[in-house]
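The following block was generated as part of the benchmark described in Methods. Ligand: heme C.
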Amino acid sequence: MPLPAPRRLLLALCWLPVTLLADDSLTAERVQELETLLYQDCGSCHGMTLRGGLGPALPTSRMNAYSQDGLAALILHGIPGTAMPGWKGLLTEEEARWLADHLQNDNPLDE
Ligand code: HEC
């Protein structure tokens, strides 16, 4: 027997936060680790503040030349024939996408 409509609505509302959380499955702890990785590991070549070093600076203007998918792929696979390594072994696709999003929309160079 189907639930009466108000109950179904209530049930749907209860599931909403679960669905939202499932969509964004990186934990706060992992996000913290990714930020540390960005400054320390990426920073070892791109500069601790991403202003450039062995690797070029990574300002928003430059990062937005890539699509977010393209930037995530670049991070995962590196740039063959250059010192830019691929991070596939260390990062999941979702994590690479988080870094790409961070570089495009929350870039430390803009602060
Ligand atoms: C071992 C040094 C090294 C490390 C570590 C490194 N990179 Fe790079 N990266 C480079 C070099 C060198 C280039 C420029 C390659 C070229 O000549 O095109 C580059 C290029 C890039 C580019 C393209 C820049 C542009 O202007 O198009 C992005 C984006 C990038 N790196 C992001 C990252 C991120 C994110 C990390 C950490 C997950 C990282 N890099 C770690 C050396 C490094």
